[in-house]
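Appendix B, Record 12. Input sequence as logged:
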Amino acid sequence: MAELFGFQITRVKDTPDPKQSFTQPKADDGTQTVAAGGYFGQYLDMEGTAKTEQDLIRRYREISIHPECDMAIEDIVNEAIVANEIDKDPVRVDLSDTSFSDDVKRKVENEFKEVLRLMNFSTKGHDIFRRWYVDGRIYYHKVIDRESPIKGLTELRYIDPRKIKKIREIKKGRPAPIANIQVIHDYNEYFLYNEKGVAGPGMASGGIKIATDAIAFCPSGLVDLNKNMVMSYMHKAIKPVNQLRMIEDAVVIYRIARAPERRIFKIDVGNLPKVKAEQYLRDVMARYRNKLVYDASTGEIRDDRNYMSMLEDFWLPSREGGRGTDISTLPGGQNLGEVADIEYFQKKLYRSLNVPVSRLEASSGFNLGRSTEITRDELKFTKFVQRLRKKFTDLFNDLLKTQLVLKAIINEEDWIGVGEKIKYDFLADGHFSELKNAELLRERIGLANDVRDYVGKYFSVKYVRQNILKQSEREMRDIDNQIKKEIDDGIIASPQTSVGADDDTIL
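Logged structural output:
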């Protein structure tokens, strides 16, 4: 295998023999598969759609700055990432389901805070999540001290996804018993980086080969399996945004063209010959005509005599025997205040991004009612944001794994068993979260009082605290220590009735 740039974390390979498989591993990250020693290419689309992932990312970024689309994206990102609390991290690691000791849990929590510091997530978390949502993928280069890897990650550098691509080289062969079927003997994965872009029009197909352990890669999970291209959640909004732009420009042009009354000039040319009559008509037109031009890119209206005008007057030559030169007006259009078609495409854009249409109305207030008053659209939107958070945590898993392995807190084999058990708790909006949590806590305390008589018979104290009061292991440990300290200090009296363990009491 060729030498790769970056670093590699050695693993104990106890995976099945690749000769047993005839398919590629993990087809949901858009990895480009090539034969060993071969080249890789891109699809050429003659229908005007995106030809490469670079064109697709550029199109995502263009539509994301459209005002209505930007509002919808901000609603999604603001729900997913909350960073307006001064003394709280936007996201915390939850190790309640892992089998780590308390000392290891404390080290893992500290290292996760270090990862957030390297990403500057408390300040740039909103921008990082938006960048991942719009582009559909995000790359970070993990920089370490080669002289002392035990120091862990020293820097995280963002990489433009248009300049890097994950490549998988496979080696196939035909086993002796089955001559007509090719199986995969071995495969090698790496990232290919090119400053000018990877495999685009006029771009070189070469680049720097980087080891997979040196790059943190988090895709959106949406893949066009026909073209093996990673898509963004913005993909469904491409057509609605273009339609909205078209209808907005068309409405503006139509209203400017039909709102004023047009003038109809009937110029008496007498007995002038045809050539001279046309010259006379052009002279009169140049003297009195209106030349207003609408620029769709900036929305400006200017007087420009170098382009054809939308507000052309009608100039009609009339011969001798008529009423002579006459000027009349053509009435303007009616019902120019209709915006139903624009509102339709705005709602269609919000639906394509899975954002409730009610959030589009600027005049509609926020109604924080009971849980039974939550609308179906808001419930679906909340679940959608939770799925986005879940997929985004793959970036945290990758960085945290590298940090823990480099600092020898855990080894590669330990991570395989506990990596899926690590959860992440995202910070919720402070004011509305307090009101919601107050209602939930009130319901939980009432339910705990209802089952109080059954504790010790049908329920344990730990079950009540975990499943009814929804306390995590860390919260239970901290609360028990606080209660014990307050009893020792005489702040509160020792409970008269003890149920279950020494400190497990229902107050």
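The chain has three domains: 18-233+380-426, 260-330, 430-489.
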